[in-house]
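From the shared-data thread, chain only:
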Amino acid sequence: MDFRDSPKEEEFRAEARAFLEANAPEQPVDFFDDEADEEELLERSLSWQKTLFEHGWAAVTWPREYGGRGQGPIEQIVWNQELARAGFGETMFVVGIGMAGPTIIAHGSDEQKERFLKPLAQGQKLGAYCLSEPGAGTDAANQQTMAKKDGDDWIINGMKNFITNGANADTLIVFAQTDPALKHK
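Structure, as tokens:
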């Protein structure tokens, strides 16, 4: 298997690298820095996300109409490699960009897409996911939280622990059982 960049990927990599060299903050934003001032980290993260959005790099695989770049998974890998090369890892926006946004793109209504996608890509909304439960941890088959369809809505009953950004999030992905009979399938 040949892992070298194709000419198209090489061009994309050069574009990504040039953007980062011209626009990346001198000190990368380290989302996992336990000693960082939380307010400063949030401010710097928001500023960097805004820069990414303004230049079309905030959500590489999202369609352009939602603030993305319209690229595929290979370009996302190349982008991630270039971010790492520049000293950047995941940001506090990874759940919104990588999980909530793609789910809304695939399954959301037009109103939901309008309401959530650009604000997620711009960093105006912060996503978190709720998988873990007291007594179940992340064992999906042992979770007790249930989601039941009620007309066009889902009614969720149960208790979750926030995995990421929970205290600051305004968009949540909640993992819940919809059919207890399928628990181990």
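The helical segments are 7-23, 38-54, 73-85, 94-107, 110-122.
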